[in-house]
Amino acid sequence: MKLAEFTIAQLQNALLTGELSARDIALQTLSAIEQHNPALNAWTEVTTDRMLQEAEGIDRLRRDGQPLPPLAAVPYAVKNLFDVAGYSTLAGASLFSDRPAARQDAWAVNKLAQSGALLSGMLNMDAYAYGFTTENSHYGATHNPRDLTRIAGGSSGGSAAAVAAGLVHFSLGTDTNGSIRVPASLCGILGLKPTFGRLSRSGSHPFVASLDHIGPFARSAEDLALVYDALQGRDSDDAFQADQPQQPTLAALDKGQEGLRCGVLGGYFHQWCNDDARAAVAVAARALNASDEVTFADAEIARYSAFLITASEGGNHYLPALRATPERFEPLSRERLLAGAMIPSAWYIQAQRFRRHFQQQILPLFAHFDVLIAPATPCSATTIGQETIHINGVDLPTRASMGMLTQPISFLGLPVATVPLQTTSGLPIGLQLIAAPFKEDLALRAARALEQQGLVMAQAATVSR
Amino acid sequence: MKDTPEWTTYLAQMEQVLALDLDDARRAELLNQFTRIAAMAQPLMAYPLDDRLEVAGVYQA
Q: Is this complex's ipTM strictly greater than 0.85?
């Protein structure tokens, strides 16, 4: 049985019964990465020594008859904007390749290490997390394990590809405007973008402080919930973290859709996608008894506002380097960042105030609904290098538009579980299951309900050239 | 919001204010990117907001 065929719970059972040791898991994982990463280009660094050391620590606990931590011997990897002690944090940018190594792990990586997980390495992304395709001019494009000629989505494309290929059980990504939900959709796996402020971002390279989130990818709702639960906790160093108690989600997961009131997001979210996406929404709506449709007035302005805040904060962040070493920038985003640095403050502040207005308009809907359903991407994965997508009768730039359905939701800061359904073309497309702030448990239960009905297609892909 | 020729002047001034040194190719791409952002700002700036409305924060409950 391949490692990818085990759920996290099954993997741990195999560990407890002695069927597998943590070292077996680490060695099999490293071997599979060595075999398949050349075709995927998901890993930019493999942390072999660390993984074997972490495995040895777990095996020592087993030998000593000690209790095992909740993610004992579970292989994972992280987007290369998370600090990992001893390595330079790249954030997808050659600009940072000669920076000093991180002295300590990011808060989330440390939490996973404490939970017993085995770090296999760091993963490719769009430079600076600015893009939706992981077509990185310096580190190369990440290939989609479902079809190697296609994009993995971005900006956490390596994180999604690594899990979709079955090489690790979970990964970490970040989501500013859709960078977890877009690659989860295109690679056909699950992703969780928690409530804005829910999880600590300490030790991750920032892009847009007002919008950045971190979150996990996995191949099942149960694995996703397990990892999300392990990532919760208060970090006093993160000024953007909400002061909320931990709310474990795993125990109630199998309640599925019991008592869940689900609706469908229409209007903008129905208009700006293709028939595959609409068909997937219809299937999920039937399964979740979501007969009512609601619309977000001004969703397009919400997207524009998210774009302006992103451009402005991102541009400001990189302005010193844009001035000093412009030749070291990703050419696909250099002038976009520069344009952002030149935005009048009135536009930026209006966008931040509109965010509050939009929240005030939308949050009352959750008095009537627990979960709202919308497509995560306008279409399935496009081919690498494809410059435009044809949606709603219009040719749109792929790199900026794959996130047009995710942007208004992260702008609101709402928690979203993304689940993949299969389209008639055979490629997956993801749905956003959107809940009220801090109701990650309900989004995950809706995902589990779709799994229970056999509708989620997230098994590991077979990677072949 | 104004049209492209006026953004050219604005961007030239911002290039000076921010102490940048661009060539013509980069200026052309900058204009392209900025014009796209300006088109998005137009409906946002026309949107009436309550004068007591503050910026959004982190959810607390």
A: yes
What does the pLDDT look like over A434-460, one tens digit per residue? 999 999 999 999 999 999 999 999 999
pLDDT tier at A343 (50, 70, 90 boundaries)?
very high
Paired tokens of A382: 């496009």
In this complex, is the C-beta atom of A326 within 8 Å of any C-beta atom belonging to chain B?
A: yes
Residues of A in contact with B56 (CB under 8 A): 352-353, 355-356, 359, 413
Q: How far is A133 from A158, CA to CA, in rounded Å?
A: 10
pTM: 0.97
Known catalytic residue at A88? no
Task: Give burial (CB, 10 Å; 0-12/13-18/19+) of A28.
Answer: middle
Mutate to test the interface with B, among A211, A303, A353 (most CBs of B within 10 A): A353
Interface probe with B: pick from A198, A213, A335, most Cβ of B within 10 Å: A335
Burial of A129 per CB tally in 10 Å (0-12, 13-18, 19+):
buried
Task: Render pLDDT for A275-318 as a digit per residue (tens, 0 to 9).
Answer: 999 999 999 999 999 999 999 999 999 999 999 999 999 999 99
Give the residue among A72, A445, A6 at the shortest CA–CA distance from A257. Answer: A445
Q: Is A179 a residue of the active site?
A: yes
Contacts of A80 (CB under 8 A, 6+ apart): A44, A45, A89, A90, A91, A92, A122, A123, A124, A125, A158
- Strand A262-265 to strand A371-375: parallel, antiparallel, or no bridges (unpaired)? parallel
Tokens representing A195?
Answer: 């409530």
